[in-house]
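Usage

Read records sequentially. Each one opens with the input sequence:
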Amino acid sequence: MTIRSAAVRRLLSAALGAAVLLASPLHAQAQPAAAPASQSAEPRPWFYATSDVPMDPAWHFGELPNGLRYAIRRNEVPAGQVSIRVRVDVGSLMEEPREAGFAHFIEHLTFRGSRDVPDGESKRIWQRLGASFGSDSNAQTSPTGTVYALDLPRATQSGIDESLRILAGMMTAPAITPEAVDAERMVVLAERREGLSPAARVGDQVRSFYFAGQRLGQHSPIGTEATLTGATPEALRAFHDRWYRPDRAVIAISGDMDPAVIEASLRAHFAGWQARGEATELPDFGKPDPKAPAVKVIVEPSSPYSVGLAYLRPWVFNEDTIAFNEARLADMVALELINRRLETVATMGASFLQASVALDDSSRSANATYVTIVPIGNDWEKALREVRAIIEDARRTPPSAADIDREFAGMEALYAAAAATSAVEGSAQQAESLVAAIDIRETVVSPQAQLEIFRSARRLMTPDHLLASTRRLFSGDAVRALLSLKAAQPNAQARLATALRAPVQPAQNVRLDAPSVTMASLPALPAPGKVASRTPVGILGIQDIAFENGVRLLLNANQAEPGKVRIRVRFGHGRQSFSPRENDALWAAPFALAASGIGDLGQREMTELMNGRRLSFGFAVEDDAFSLSAVSSPEDYGDQLRLFATKLAFPRWDDAPLKRTIAALDASYDPVPGSASEAINRNLDWLLRNQDSRFAPASPAVARTVLTLDRFKATWEPRLAAGPVEVQIFGDVVAEDAIAAVAATFGALERRTDTPPPAEYRVMGFPRPVSSPILISHDGPGEQAAAIIAWPTGGGVDRIRESRQLDMLARIINDRLFEKLRSIDGAAYTPSASSVWPESADSGGFLFVQTQLKPDRIPYFFELMNEIVADLANNPVTQDELDRQVEPVRQLLNRAAYSNAFWMSQLDGYTSDRRKLALAASLSRDLLDVTPADLQQLATRYLVPETSWSAIVLARGMPVPLVSKAMPGEAKAASAPAPATEPAPATH
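and closes with the structure output:
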């Protein structure tokens, strides 16, 4: 039974952090003795054949004579969409050493073309049907499987039939031609090159250490440069024929169409798929080797300090029965008991910044319990000792009934939320869940059945049972300890071995025996406020309600998402209330403010308060406002509003979160980024805004200056207390109850003062043009490089139509880059173009293009951009090229029209700017009515070489290539980039 809730799935994988980094998604499976599946008069379909879990009746299962299995269900969320997943049981663990990377290579070739569709044409066909490449059509290869994904937003019978025909051709006869292999080889090598990050390097070493002697230890899906370079069409075709067989494939389809129609089309196109030769047995994935080394030290300057422990047991297949799932759920509660203690201790001045535990079946290679520790500073021995002591306490002493009740309530709330909102579970999620279950040899049940199984497992969650579970989870056939350091330390490996073998005494005083925290523990608010006015907005039944204290409420009570209530509170003036010249470390505010607590309640008490409830605390700094956001429930949204209101009225100031923030930055920060992508992520946002300090990247030196308790309070206390407040509530509420809930919370606050920011604070900048690209350095592999070019555009709402058409122009550029830079030349894996247009400022917008590539291809990138820009300015795009971008946007808007989240975003700030309604009404027209002439005019106006800013990213010490920044249609002599004096100092 797969875990559907993302929040519950977090319990299984979040603890792995930087220490495991496996090549596949993580799933949990405990190993109690499996109960036999129940027998019934009617045979169960193949999916449930060996299981007694309640079958999800919405799925229809079938099997073709050739062995292909399928599952189809009707689902009208989102309306008109059909989601298809084709899973083939082949991944990197099925490869022989000479075939490393072949499963992933085949995935790429399959998407290029097939017997039925010319090279690259499937992408264009699906674009015409409304699917965007990358989001609606994509594929993924893991160690144990390959999944092809297609979400058709506009699912017609002919579109589904055509799509299944294409997919059938892709599976049975991909175009593994010399031309296609050579072209896609460069793409796969580019993907591999872009992935050469510090995290990937650590991940490779962790995998080879934890799974020594097993295939998973050496079989990364990306392969090696040698095997990818040496792959021939003949070898790839032989690999395909060996593993791509109908009896190894499963198709899951969920969507808004008659399942009988889909089934008939599926049978018509896939029935002819015939396997070649006898089936190949799966290789032995091996078992954890107890004789392999038990300790390892990694030195990686660009990765955080971390300690990892792995308790490894052989993976054993278990029938997916109710008894098996109940035992696994008890295991999860046992681990979450420890996770809560670890997190609580970490907030109270422990020697570790973060620590967590997780259970996982790692690619069917081991059943493992992982411990991940991020120490504060480099005293990893003390951190390891403290964490082991907390685990030892759980291994020796049973949890209390109160401990169990607390964790059970928290997890039950997650399952209950999934059941309450199951009516709006999307087709893509349903299809993904089914193929994920196939991958780990499990089943799926309805969210309600999942909740009931969890509740039935409560009988197992006794102190003695959870004690036995903990002892089993923290034992194994092999136990490994891994240490990742930023710099070498004397005798580190011997010290790690000593620390692992050292006896450990159980920790004292880590049990959570604090008195219960309830909403009554929060500071009391004044008497409820009164409504001053109530008027309809004029669309979708949305109401604009003003309270006497100036708070405004946008309310839309609807059943679009049963069981969900979306809340968003905008207040103050956001980033525009700060000086663009003073660095206030705005990046730290979301965590530090939330963790500081409310009134007398600190982070520990707030966690206790929210446990078992659909309460959360999302804080963000936006251009023109701060925001608090949450997705709650009809039962909890009133208390969610109270949490937010008391945070503004009674903020707590605590230096512990500030110290923890600084410690986290110290643990992860490297003065020079360790890869090209890290260099871009750290610097680009800031550089493209003319080094505006409000967008400055995190820096330990600045953090130590700014994140002191006095300065943090002086910075944020007045901003939490002043400025207009707009509350949005969209979802499953009764309108009068929602108004009363706001009256009792935000309506009860004192009237807030409001001082608009100075005019200069509302200005957004763009860097001055450069004659040659500036240089940004990184410390990663020399073969990693990147190139960026950007042009200033505009801002504000007066030319909002232009901003939306610039989005379409960026999509055109993006598609051309994909076709040329990736599909044809193989020079880059992820070229991208985007447009940014700040609506709350009259300037600061830009259109930018970025890509990673080899250093010697940087001049080619700029030449190609010159050609693309010149062509867009001199020639209108073809109608087909435009339609292939417009149709996916049309379908996206059609889906969004039913979304509360969409309308909340469109009306954000409406109560202070009534133009928002007209802007929302014109969105579809502005995007979809764009013409080739419009785009040509925009290219001529904005993509002007004299106004552009550009940068290149190179490893330190690499020679700087000559780059030509030619005028459109002209050729100018190449010149070397300017020295790194043009950018600000932190261009690392």
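Summary fields computed downstream for this record:
- The radius of gyration is 29 Å.
- The first strand starts at residue 60 and ends at 63.
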